[in-house]
Design brief:
The chain is α/β, with parallel strands linked by helices. The protein contains 14 helices and 13 strands. The N and C termini lie far apart (50 Å). The structure holds pyridoxal-5'-phosphate. Pyridoxal-5'-phosphate binds next to helix 4.
Length: 381
């Protein structure tokens, strides 16, 4: 057997897979991995069925079904005032993950530096490394996890190729605000730096806050890949359909990679979502829908010994637990899962160095009875 030189020697199984498997094994309530325990809309399922019956079961066009790209362009113009050309600036992808991988692959060359902020979603760094890029990470700290823009400035040099942002943010549930946009704008002005903006939770934003999409700002839009997913808003994470928007000069490179990575994406689901998006309440209702869950869960957690961190967006609630134990967050997560029957994610898993601020992440995209049952168990901790 010949020895294989691993391209990702440090990479093991993701924490999400590990915790979900453990939850199943011990019969714990799974608030670890980010997916709903309720079904997607019956209307959307009917539309998928109808698309299949109509015969939309062969390859979709490489860039995605035209009707869907047109609906996305219309929605983006309505929400963010940005006119993306559906023919040249929008591509349907197999979820946000593929869009992220494709964008990085398309523009990051060996030795290019890419700035990421930790805690970071797990797919950014491996994609950068596979392209021979260099990950420059900045660690953010609880309770507010704000980006220290003065430190970002210090990281910039002529090898900086890209900055990856994520708003609303997984795992911390923070959002970028206008002040962040101003700082970012000053940093990238007159610089050859691209932005990859992971906005898969764009519709999960609370308390009347504004989603600061890169699409809103012409000077940022022209440097940005904006990534979105239909899995999060439409409670269908298993469908793995999302999209990327970028100016034509970037999208052109994106599609060169996309066509050899997946070529095209699940056809009937694209036709169905194109129909579904015609009714804007399908996405405009989401902030209220998830805010109710957030508030219900937070009210429950307030009765426990966990301490709540702020939650402005996404479907995650973070807590600290210094009144309970000084265990490492990874050990405590295992104990919570095995002994108390609630599976969570330790936030240290989102730091390359495993930095442990004693913070746990719960997913509240669950039925009320699931959240109540979890709180009941957490009251015993
Ligand atoms: C921040 C973030 N980006 C991207 C993704 C991936 O999205 P998708 O499931 O559409 O690939 C996720 C999924 O959990 C996420 O949390």
């Amino acid at each position: 057997m010949s020895a294989i030189l691993s391209k990702l020697p440090q990479t093991g199984t993701t924490i999400f897979t590990v915790m979900s498997a453990l939850a199943q094994q011990v019969g714990a309530i799974n608030l670890s991995q980010g997916f709903p325990d309720f079904n997607t809309s019956p209307e959307l399922i009917k539309l998928v069925n109808a698309a299949m019956k109509k015969g939309h079961n062969q390859y979709a066009p490489m860039a995605g079904v035209a009707q869907l790209r047109e609906q996305i362009a219309a929605k983006t113009e309505k929400l963010y005032g940005a006119a993306y050309d559906p023919d040249t600036e929008i591509t349907i992808t197999a979820g946000g993950t593929q869009a992220i991988f494709t964008a990085i692959t398309a523009v990051v060359n060996p030795n290019d530096e890419v700035i990421i902020f930790e805690p970071a979603f797990d797919c950014y760094a491996p994609a950068i490394k596979l392209m021979g890029g260099v990950v420059k990470s900045l660690e953010l700290e609880p309770p507010d996890y704000r980006i220290p823009w003065n430190m970002v400035k210090r990281l910039i040099n002529n090898r900086t190729r890209m900055i990856i942002l994520n708003t609303p943010h997984n795992p911390t549930a923070t959002i970028l605000r206008k002040e962040d946009i101003d700082e970012l704008s000053a940093i990238v002005k007159n610089q050859d730096i691209l932005i990859l903006s992971d906005e898969v939770y764009e519709h999960l934003i609370f308390d009347g806050e504004t989603h600061q999409s890169m699409a809103r700002y012409a000077h940022l839009r022209e440097k940005s890949f904006v990534v979105a997913s239909f899995g999060k808003p439409f409670h269908a994470t298993g469908w793995k359909v999302g999209y990327c928007m970028a100016p034509a000069y970037l999208m052109n490179e994106f599609r060169k990679v996309h066509q050899f990575l997946v070529f095209s994406v699940n056809a009937p689901i694209q036709y169905a979502i194109a129909e579904y998006l015609k009714n804007e309440s399908t996405y405009l209702s989401l902030p209220a829908f998830f805010q109710e869950k957030r508030d219900h869960f937070r009210t429950g957690l307030e009765q426990t010994r966990f301490k709540l961190l702020p939650c402005s967006g996404s479907y995650f609630q973070s807590v600290t637990y210094n009144d309970i134990t000084d265990e490492k967050d990874s050990d405590f997560s295992l104990r919570l899962t095995k002994d108390f029957g609630v599976a969570v994610i330790p936030t240290s898993a989102f730091y390359n160095r495993g930095t442990d601020h004693h913070v746990l992440r719960f997913c509240f995209a669950k039925r009320q009875e699931t959240l109540d049952k979890a709180v009941e168990r957490l009251l015993r901790v």
